[in-house]
């Protein structure tokens, strides 16, 4: 059993020694991730786990990779992608240039999903998709655009449910249990490390997607990140969150309007 | 049955179930007092498609407010909260909910173990954990955690469960305070109520 105070010590170590700030992560889920890693790597005690993190910078890498959640899928929540397809993208189409930021993109499945939507709307050539995450191992996977073949049945169903009419398999080449997505989809993607806790805004965007990242933060940090997004959105830009995430606790609520029932908001002032 | 022991002060009841669990809830909810002094948290294994029909289905059986959790919702007494499909449901020390979409546990998301363990951390002895019908072993570790934190553990009598595996696993592997049929479950939850 791990005590709250032990987690506080660890969080303090991570900040003091390495500059990673987990202070405002949601306590219950952070604890759960830590307990899971302790069991996974068979540490006999919390003290030993803490010692390893303090003394082994390589193990810190593993810590960051395992503590951050990288579960994602293509066309996740198809009804969300349908609204992107039918309402958001046609509005973006009028712009000379479209800038999108996938914040906390994990292994990139959603970045490729959006690239497919933009390609089908014949807008990909004038778009740039910035994809950022705090986890370097996840970003490396995202860059490759290689995903497990076993997932494609589900992804193809999601794609169709989102309003897709092409043959989904035309977007990838299958090989040895994996598929590689078409290079042309990745041409407009820029991947880089970005930590939502500590890093700043780096551009102005027309659409920011940050799906199921805020759930791991407490309200104070959610507020900080939402303000970062607000600063990074152009006039009438869109903010898209995960299916159970909300702006309702934020002071920014009044400057955004929600589209339908989906977790997509438009900046109105 | 340790009836007297169950008149403890209760801040939260967490109810978990899988196959056959929903049927039990549909029978239990209409017979509960219409105002609670505690919070009810329900975790049911369900298909991962995003549907909110469970919320309206349960709400149709009771006058108590029923709410599918959104991230960082506050936890109020007198409300029934449901774990949303495809997320683990956790309870934060400041009495808000947080969601987690990490790996499945016991092939399940939401996982009963995850919510029970997290509720045990926060509510300690003032938690009652109830495990209903189901076809896998999820919930057993959760009940172990509830008991360890000083809470009360209850499972549905396997003979009355549509799918008895889940309660049987718990009885075999967790410290269970009471094994109850549906009328007894109703009586138990109503007995936890403290008039204001």
Architecture overview:
The complex is a heterodimer of chains A (269) and B (196). Chain A is of the alpha/beta class and 269 residues long. In chain A, 42% of the residues lie in helices and 19% in strands. The longest helix of chain A has 15 residues, at 4-18. The mean pLDDT of chain A is 95. Chain B has 196 residues and is of the alpha/beta class. Chain B is 28% helix and 20% strand. Chain B is built from six helices and nine strands. In chain B, the strands form two sheets. Chain B has a seven-stranded parallel β-sheet, with helices on both faces. A two-stranded antiparallel sheet of chain B has the order 5-6. The longest helix of chain B has 12 residues, at 112-123. In chain B, 53% of the residues are buried.
What count of helical segments of chain B does DSSP give? 6
- Determine the N-to-C terminus distance of chain B: 27 Å
Poorly predicted runs of 5 or more residues of chain B: 1-6
Assembly annotation: heterodimer
User: Helical content of chain B, roughly?
Assistant: 25-40%
- Uncertain segments of chain A of ≥5 residues (pLDDT<50)? none
Query: What is Rg of chain B?
Result: 15 Å
Count of DSSP strands of chain B = 9
Instruction: Provide the structure class of chain B.
Output: alpha/beta
* Discrete helix count of chain A: 10
In short:
The complex is a heterodimer of chains A (269) and B (196). With 269 residues, chain A is α/β, with parallel strands linked by helices. Helices cover 42% and strands 19% of the residues of chain A.
Which tags fit this structure?
heterodimer; A: alpha/beta; seven-stranded mixed sheet; 10 helices; 42% helix; 19% strand; B: alpha/beta; seven-stranded parallel sheet; two-stranded antiparallel sheet; 28% helix; disordered N terminus
